[in-house]
Amino acid sequence: MFHIFEKAIMGIALLRILSGCIEIFVAFLILKFNDIEKALVVNSSLALVGPIILMITTTIGLVGLSEKVPLTKLIWIFGGVACILYGVKSN
């Protein structure tokens, strides 16, 4: 009946739940402010949260896999995540 989850799985899931709660909170703030300028400022602040959560959850997952995946593949994965972050970086 009770499932024992890996620590990495619990960490990733809890961070994603936290991220979702932040998104919902920001949606309520936008509705409360009812002003387009304030809504854009609050929405833009989420641009910081998303990549941070992505990096942390990816790091947790890779640490959990570090025993099973060779170092060269880990470097490729981190390089891919870095490319994703660079690609979505706003200029």
Give a verbal description of the structure.
Helix 1 (7-33) runs antiparallel to helix 2 (36-65). The relative contact order is 0.12. The chain has 91 residues and is mainly alpha-helical. 82% of the residues lie in helices and 0% in strands. It starts with 6 loop residues before the first helix and ends with a helix.
- The outline comes out as flat
Q: Summarize the main sheet.
A: none
Question: Averaging pLDDT over every residue, what do you get?
Answer: 86
H-E string:
HHH
Q: Based on DSSP secondary structure assignment, what is the total number of beta strands? A: 0
Alpha-beta content class? mainly alpha
Return residue spans where pLDDT drops below 50 for at least 5 consecutive residues.
none
The percent range for strand residues is under 5%
Distance between the termini: 50 Å
Counting DSSP H or I runs of 4 or more residues, the number of helices is: 3
* Share of residues in helices: over 70%
Task: Return Rg in Å.
Answer: 17 Å
Descriptive labels:
flat; 91 residues
List strands and helices in order, with pairings.
Blueprint: H1 7-33, H2 36-65, H3 71-88
Please summarize what this structure is.
The protein has 91 residues and is an all-alpha fold. The chain is built from 3 helices and no strands.
